[in-house]
Amino acid sequence: MTKAYNAIQKIVSDHRVSGMNGLADSYRGFADLANAHAEGADYRVHIRPIVSSSIAVIAPHGGRIEQYTSDIARGVAGGDFNLYLFEGIRQAGNYATLHLTSHRFDEPRCLSLLSKCDHVVAIHGCGGDDQRVLLGGLDEALKPAVGQALAALGVEVRSDGHQFSATDPKNICNRGRRGVGVQVEMTMGLRRHGPRDAICAVIRSVLLTLPHERQRGVQSQ
To answer: What is the overall mean pLDDT for the chain?
Structure first.
């Protein structure tokens, strides 16, 4: 019975689909999550600031909550951009207990980091065996640039007509200094079997073309 239960919980933690309920659905914000779970035992937070960069790459559902999103966020950030990871580290049930929905994600260290950044890219995972990216967020300049770069790899990209629009101003991707950002939802099929390294590289290449980053690159030469 225990093995079967754990197997089910792992499946739940790997799939982000509508209608999936869990304890995390009742959280009003990070304070509720922190009251119910212990940092270091149930979850961990990783922050790697780059003082000279105005870009943040985040995975608010990293670790075992949405599988591979931490790896992808690290790959996009490299050594150039600010990085934030909120990671589930429980043996089972990470999604159901730690998936704080994006418009309620107000972990103080994340908000502090984003308050210093003009551009935010949030890496997420959703269900599906197909290889697809669903883009959302309020950054109407950066979002199509990311979409075009991904499409050039041959990845199917949708920027509207899906349930992950991330247009709520309180969505964590929109909590940077400019109040806009990009949410990158990747299906499990893409995260598990797709060209992850190439995806990280093309998103990085787009971010490196942003004006502040171009200027920083020239100054460092």
So the answer is: 90
